[in-house]
Design brief:
The protein has two domains: 160 residues, FAD/NAD(P)-binding domain; 198 residues, D-Amino Acid Oxidase, subunit A, domain 2 (D-Amino Acid Oxidase, Chain A, domain 2, 2-Layer Sandwich), CATH 3.30.9.10. Helix 1 runs parallel beside helix 9, helix 1 runs parallel beside helix 12 and helix 5 crosses helix 12. It is globular. With 420 residues, it is of the alpha/beta class. Strands 4, 6, 7, 8, 15, 16, 17, 18 and 19 form a nine-stranded mixed sheet that branches. Helix 1 links the parallel strand 1 and strand 2. The chain starts with 9 loop residues before the first strand and ends in an 18-residue tail after the last helix. The chain is built from twelve helices and 21 strands. It binds flavin-adenine dinucleotide (FAD).
Length: 420
């Protein structure tokens, strides 16, 4: 783009997780001058420790119809897949109420369409984004197997499979023999399973973000290691960004600070029901088993992903806010559950991690122009699926700034969907 071109802007993207980095890259491709700000290195927050799974077919919200009745049972087990720190409940209650409203059949149908559209082109988008960055090497196209310990748990997931079918996602139903063929050495006699051929995974999610951020810098982007604390506003929006290190003039601002976005959005005059579902992983450097493809345990709600130098067990939902210290017993619980699958798992040298998923009550992210200020954009709230939703988020933000029509209907991701 010609520097004299009036459409060229200076965009400041706050947050260098997978979402912020994708936004920065697509804005840069449009010829904008882009600054990416993060107080940590790229990919050091939630985008670092996830299960690495990327799937164009992801279209089931985290709260399906009937979840409200299952929650009390899940909460009774202190190390079960779901936990709430009770002191946090009063702050969480409005979010939970919104989640309950999002579980009607009509809403779930609409949410699943919006999730599917957001994720549909993720594989080709990453192919294009990572070309020549070195990150191409960390992608694996092994599919994703989901295992069920009983006919009952397999039947309970029936509505999710039907939803996927309605969205055109191919799900292979696996017989016991095929399960053992795909993954030899399973300790539990699984008779029920499914395989999603469309899924791929990355063997190091942090390296993916770092490689993309390095590419962004190579193409002339600026990466600043600063924490944004406030904005100096004028009538048309933010004129300067205040960081712990000083202040910078701004033109366009994109808030992509993951679970930490709520405060920043509030400072920009918009309220958003963003909370966090904290997740954990335990990484086993010498697991003693060869896991051939990513596996989900439907009964214990966690994922096993073969990573570059470890087997990663990731999952659990903990509601405790951003500030509370981690409870690593929840990571250890993942190991107990995984030993039902692989009894001889070796945990020597294991490391534990906790990350804050940026979660919206309806499982849909916020991707839009601010309703208050035309120079401000929001790109956060990807919850369980940020790795899959990041590329399309970046494309949408770039299209919105350019005033182009978007490749998918962006209406479902508007921040004002919660407003009366
Ligand atoms: C256990 C677990 C497993 C998961 N598995 C998967 C999976 O398999 N597939 C998938 O698609 N998703 C998965 N996810 C979800 C995925 O990791 C997230 O949705 C995604 O990482 C969110 O990315 P983000 O860029 O929005 O946030 P983050 O990665 O958290 O990035 C936000 C960035 O903003 C920065 N920041 C915050 N505040 C400020 C500030 N004031 N100033 C400057 N910078 C700031 C932070 O330092 C951080 O780097 C998983 C999550 C967890 C916890």
């Amino acid at each position: 783009m010609n520097p004299q071109d009036k459409t060229q802007r200076h965009a400041t993207v706050i947050g260098a997780g997978i979402v912020g980095v994708c936004c920065a890259l697509y804005l840069q491709r449009d010829g904008h001058e882009v600054t990416l700000m993060d107080y940590q290195g790229p990919g050091e927050a939630c985008s670092m420790g996830n299960a690495g799974q990327i799937s164009p077919g992801t279209c089931t919200p985290h709260a399906m119809p009937g979840i409200v009745f299952q929650v009390p049972g899940m909460l009774l087990d202190p190390l079960g897949p779901l936990a709430i720190r009770w002191r946090y409940l009063p702050r969480l209650a409005p979010w939970l109420l919104r989640l309950a409203f999002a579980t009607t059949k009509r809403r779930v149908e609409a949410i699943s369409i919006a999730l599917r559209e957001l994720h549909r082109s993720v594989c080709s988008d990453y192919e294009e984004l990572t070309e020549g960055t070195g990150a191409e090497k960390i992608f694996r196209r092994a599919g994703r197997m989901e295992l069920y310990e009983s006919e009952r748990s397999f039947a309970a997931a029936g509505p999710s499979r039907e939803l996927m079918q309605r969205r055109g996602v191919e799900v292979e139903i696996l017989a016991a023999e095929r399960i053992r063929e795909l993954q030899p050495g399973l300790g539990f006699p699984y008779r029920y399973g499914t395989l999603r051929h469309d899924s791929m995974h990355v063997t190091d999610p942090r390296r993916l973000v770092q490689a993309l951020a390095a590419d962004f810098e190579r193409r002339g982007g600026t990466l600043l290691t600063e924490r944004v604390v406030d904005f100096e506003m004028n009538a048309s929006g933010p004129a300067r960004i205040t960081t712990e290190a000083g202040s910078h003039p701004v033109d366009v601002v994109v808030v992509a600070a993951g679970a930490y976005s709520r405060k920043l959005v509030r400072a920009l005059g918009t309220r958003v029901p963003l909370d966090t579902e904290r997740g954990y992983h335990i990484a086993l450097p010498n697991p003693g088993v060869e896991v051939r493809l990513p596996i989900m345990s439907a009964d214990h709600h966690f994922a096993l992903t073969p990573m570059e130098n470890e087997l990663r067990l990731a999952g659990t939902d903990e509601f405790a806010g951003i500030e509370a210290p981690p409870n690593y017993a929840r990571a250890d619980r993942l190991l107990q559950a995984a030993r039902r699958m692989f009894p001889d798992l070796n945990a020597e040298g294991a490391s534990r991690w906790m990350g804050c998923r940026p979660s919206m009550p309806d499982s849909l992210p916020v991707i839009c122009r601010s309703p208050r200020y035309p120079s401000v954009f929001f790109a956060f709230g990807h919850g369980h699926f940020g790795l899959s939703g990041a590329p399309m988020t970046g494309r949408l933000i770039a299209d919105m700034l350019a005033g182009r029509s978007t490749p998918i209907d962006a209406g479902p991701y508007r921040v004002d969907r919660f407003w009366p």
